[in-house]
Write a structure and sequence with these properties.
It contains four helices and no strands. By secondary structure, it is mostly helical.
């Protein structure tokens, strides 16, 4: 379990750092369609066609996705904040449950299992805390607005 949790958080940290490096290099994820540059004649097979999905996709309130999230990074920032909040709640629940099971445990084996759960939860907290501060440092060093 510890290995799976550690691998998950390392992959998550890698993906976040990869996204931030792409953002620092100004890589466009959804290129904007320029209506003036489109010609009425059929395009050749070699030419790429770009479609801005943000103007076609709609949220539950009927708003366009592009009206709410001007850039794809805005949506990713929201997702990352929600993930951090969920992980914080999960950490809190794991610490409470493992603490109560440690108190209620009668055997040494049960106490060791609760201690392992608590250790895993604290290791996950350290990884998430480090990921947050790495993102803060990248924000300061590159001058980009990550959204935290």
């Amino acid at each position: 379990m510890k290995k799976k949790l550690t691998a998950f958080f390392l992959i998550l940290l890698f993906l976040i750092s990869h996204f931030l490096s792409l953002k620092a290099l100004n890589v466009n994820f959804l290129p904007q369609v320029n209506a003036q540059s489109q010609s009425p004649s059929p395009s050749p097979v070699d030419e790429e066609v770009e479609i801005d999905l943000g103007s076609y996709l709609k949220l539950s309130g009927g708003q366009k996705v592009s009206d709410v999230f001007q850039k794809p990074s805005d949506m990713l920032n929201l997702i990352i904040r929600v993930v951090f909040a969920v992980v914080g709640l999960l950490l809190f629940v794991l610490l409470i449950v493992s603490g109560l099971s440690m108190i209620a445990a009668g055997t040494t084996e049960s106490k060791d299992k609760a201690k392992g759960t608590m250790t895993s939860a604290l290791m996950g907290f350290i990884i998430i805390f480090a990921a947050y501060w790495i993102m803060q440092i990248i924000q300061v060093l590159t001058g980009t607005d990550i959204g935290f």
